[in-house]
Design goal:
It is a single chain. The protein has 545 residues and is α/β, with parallel strands linked by helices. The chain is 58% helix and 10% strand. The strands form two sheets. A five-stranded parallel beta sheet has the order 2-1-3-4-5, sandwiched between helices. Helix 11 packs across helix 13, helix 15 packs across helix 17 and helix 19 crosses helix 20. The chain is flat and about 105 Å long.
Length: 545
Amino acid sequence: MKKDTLKVLLVDDEYLIRELLKKRIKWEQLGCEIVGEASCAAEAFAFLEEKTADLILTDIDMPITDGLEMSKRIIESYPKIKIIVVSGYDKFEYAKNGIKLGLEDYILKPIREAEVERAILHLKEKLEKQKKNEYENDMIKKQLENNMPYLREKFFSGLFRGRLALAEIEDKLDFLKLELQEKFFQVALFEVVFNTEEKYSEEERLVELIGTVHMIENYFKNMPCVHVLLDAKENIIVFCNDAKASLIEECSYILERLKGSHPKWDITVGIGSIKENIEEVKHSYSEAVTALQSKAILGENQVIYYNDLDIVTPKMNPIPTLQENAMDQLQFLIKAGLHEQVLDYIDMLYESIGKYSNIGEQNFTIHIRIQTTRMISVLFYVIASMDIKIEDIAYYQEEFFKEVASITNIPQAKRLVISLAQKLIKNINTIQNHVVSDYMEDILKYIQDNMSDYALTLNKIAGHFYMNPSYLSRIFKQRKGISFKDYLNKIRMETALEYVRNTDLKAYEIGEKIGIPDANYFSTSFKRYIGMSMTDYKKMIGQEG
């Protein structure tokens, strides 16, 4: 940052003192400029009405209005101006009291150059620190302002997922300057499936998606209590906090407009019920997800309101749906190619679904279909995200979902989901097998080249090659016949043997070269691997030589 020149106003009723100060002090070297002088408080006030000053150097003992009274009035009217007072010895206590008014410093008479320079340099240092802090604070505020849309989106994501306690919600609302009305919270989700006849590039798809978000934002621009954002699955969320708005009507109108502009797109809207407390927003979001996923039964290109779904008991007690994190876990296990774990997890999910078999046959059947649709949606999402050919896994997605509509019991639903999951896992494992095979030579070379890194781990290597650590561990053992840990230890010990045979390096030096800097641990590892200490091994090869 550029250091500014301090503008100084000298105030003293004695002309010679003012001249002395002007000529004896090296103002320019101190980064100061004398911009004016005054012989009394009245002249000082007159100067400040027309011009500006950063610093006033004033005597205390002046006629009519003394320096302290003048300083008090200047500080009240011009709080940014700094003041240093000059006092005779007998006025010392008087000057000290002036510091309480907000004066920066005081200098005793007779005036000494060094004392004036000290006071000014101290003030400049203080001002520079203050300016730097203000600059940094301004930069932080600008960064926060620039990141505010992201921070708000992150807040809403946590709110919908139920990850925030009430106190945390209130703190974040205050920080993000979000004013929410009480007793009205509702969530809608727009799912947009682009025309499959036209091949969109990823860039074109994102441009269309963001354009749709902006269109919905623009529609609600006059409703400050409606917020629009994307969720992790690229569904468009509409969070309504306006009791006067009818989200069903608004979303129906938006759907009509979107379909008019893009008749080949499949657009479905799921809407959760209205909640009175902000902590219950997560339930409205979960209901919107369930409503959206029921399109497999009710059809696409329509608004589906959760309360219209017939999945409640005669007493109107809503049926709990599988939590969103359950679907995230299923997705993770599928992508990791963990066959047995996936089958066990699907069993567990259907066991949870089966707990509500007492809600009536028709309701229970619909409940099974809705939850099965959610699981199948996750599997097809994995297929799309991993760029797997759909024909390698199943027949057309639409036909697959139609089969869900014929499900009448849990075993039938489970067979359908497991059949798709097994084919998908087999395909994923085949892909990952090819990936690991293609990279195995590079992986082994990477291990060889980086064995000196004591922090070399399977996770680090997996990260370097963008692989799943657990899958890499499993495939590595299949290909090499030993675990990664044993393999790393083997090449380190074999390399250590080469150093022992061909160099005079000490144990700790060899340990550092192979990634075991702890000399004691290296000696123990060497003995465990070779069956003798490094000293005994050297004697043995010496005798052989």
